[in-house]
Amino acid sequence: MSFRVTCAAAVVTALAGLTFLPFAASAQEAVVKERQDLMKSFGDWSKTLAAAAKGAPLDAAVVKAAEDISAGMKKLPAQFPVGTGSDKMKNRAKPEIWADMAKFTAYANDGAAAYGALAASAKGGNAAAYQAAFTKAAASCAACHKDYRGPAVK
């Protein structure tokens, strides 16, 4: 291959690689938006669960909310790919998540189990058992947020 052909191939390859950079940033932004939407849903569903802990009926909506959070918790680790923390983009995810992904994953697994147990207690209809399970489930969220949620983004 001549020197000109080699140089031209190198330039074309480099330029082709640059065209993917905006796509990569866009894909990361989409992941951050998806996880923020999931967290917002967790907050919305938690309102239903908190009302039940305060005496509202343990009905199908309560069971579904707890099951939905449990299912969402199982997805959480995949919602935090490398490069999507607050040190790289505008969001509240602390870099500590990626420093100890095993611990973060353990929090998500604990949360999934706690909300699964909450759903089971709601199905059982025992208000005292539900309140105890609710306290445990809410504590799982608080513990993770304490370690991994940064300050509000302005």
**Helix content class:** over 70%
Low-confidence stretches: 5-23
Would you give the CATH topology?
A: Four Helix Bundle (Hemerythrin (Met), subunit A)
Distinct helical segment count = 5
- How would you name the oligomeric state of the polypeptide chains in this document? single chain
CATH superfamily: Cytochrome c/b562
Largest sheet: none
Summing up helix and strand content along with how strands pair, one would put the structural category as: mainly alpha
CATH class: Mainly Alpha
Spatial shape: elongated
From the 3D coordinates, which CATH architecture would you assign? Up-down Bundle
As a percent range, the share of strand residues is under 5%
Q: Report the strand count.
A: 0
Cα-based radius of gyration, to the nearest Å: 22 Å
Overall pLDDT: 87
Number of domains: 1
- SSE order, one letter for each helix or strand: HHHHH
Distance between the termini: 54 Å
